[in-house]
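Researcher: I'm preparing a figure for a lab meeting and need a structural model of a single chain. I don't have an experimental structure, so a prediction will have to do for now. The sequence is pasted below. Please return the structure as tokens so I can convert it later.
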Amino acid sequence: MKYMTKILFLLAVLPNAGYTQTAYIDDYMRINLRPQPDQASQPIGVVVSGDKLEVLERRDRYVRVRTMDNKLGWVFDKYLNVVPSAKIRLKENENKLAQLREELDRTKQALGQAMSTQAVALSPVSTKTVESKSSSISLLIYWFIVLVLSGTLGFGAGAFYYRHQVERRLGGLRLGPIL
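Model: Understood. Here is the structure written out token by token.
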């Protein structure tokens, strides 16, 4: 029994050793940073929404954290969130949107330049290649239609044959509209 309690203690302590997690204060809040994990201790500082905190330890409903300016203290766990605040996520997404818009504009410009150079480069020889491509596409469509029609006819013939075999096994009993 003595070994069992030691093993359980080690299993409870070891996963927390050397493991840190980042947490953020929820949106629009100011919470007290306390030296002890209780409401009776006087606050040693304040953390506000969007502050990045390093989680060091958890005890009951309190979490020991380190702020970005290296202050250590305890905060109530219900105010922490592992997802950054909406204000931070909004700024990040606005930056990504601006980058994607710039990339889209560059791509549009490159496409416009490529289309203008292609229009100048067209000659009677290149129109023949366009015509041959369109004829190969129409040929591909023709064979696709033939394949679909033959598959449909084969399926229908198989269904009728299956119905005929079932009726034969049942001694001429008509199955009706089911099969």
